[in-house]
Amino acid sequence: MTAETRFRVGSISKPLTAAAVLSLVEDGAVDLDRPMVEQLDGFGATPQRWAAQITPRQLLNHTAGYPSYPDVFFELDDAEFEANDELHLLLSRYTDRFPLDFAPGTAWAYANFGYAALGWLSAEKHGAPFPTMIVDRVFTPFGMAGATFVFAEASRGDYASGHALENGALTVLDYELTNVQAHFASALLSARELGALMVALMDRMDRAPWSEMFTDTLPPGVDAYGRGMGLGLFVDSVEGAASHGGAVRGFLAYLVIVPAARLGFAFAINADDEDAFGEILEISLARFVP
Predict the structure, then answer these.
(1) 7-208 belongs to which homologous superfamily?
(2) What is d(CA 111, CA 65) in angstroms, rounded to the nearest whole number?
(3) pTM, whole model, 2 decimals?
């Protein structure tokens, strides 16, 4: 295992999708506060209460009103997904079964679907499929040459196999996340690329719109698991640290940036070992967070 070995980082995929959206905001191609129905063809294909009010900002900070779980993404196979119009298929599956839980901008619920929609928004505005867009908008400018959302690419190189901890023993897992989950859970990054991501975000954090990744953007009285929420990162109200974790079967990962100290740390493990994960996180927080 080396600094170039790729790990699945689960929901650390979300800050990558958020970065793509913010780069488009910076270029004037996306408006954070203009309704999605006016910016993404098909977003309003399945009418429902409040849907016309949803904005990219609300999807980024999980205040759009979509419920947290369950997810329909895991019920779709790639053949079905690729044979249909992506957004229309998922919108009909998701909104028909799980209508909005609350009016957009009034509460918080961690929702994968929001980042699926943001992935399609960024791809459409960039004018290329998501895997190409994320390279152009994030991986190349951020210096993350080995990063990918496509498992077939990662598996040809230095890739860490996932392990499940069952009855005290580790079992090697051999599976792929589907393309359906790409925008919010399928990124594969090495330690070097996690470092490059943190450096790139810190280089941008003093200017709009990037500064809103590190600022609590939630409405008054609303919190995210007891913390604040920026546009793609959780924000600690005391230390000011911005962070995001990731978990998919066989892998756990965590990323923390401390703006005041201009430092960050991240780690990934290729096992479902929450005790080891917790120990590493505790040691890291004690070492790096003031």
Answers:
(1) DD-peptidase/beta-lactamase superfamily (3.40.710.10)
(2) 9
(3) 0.89
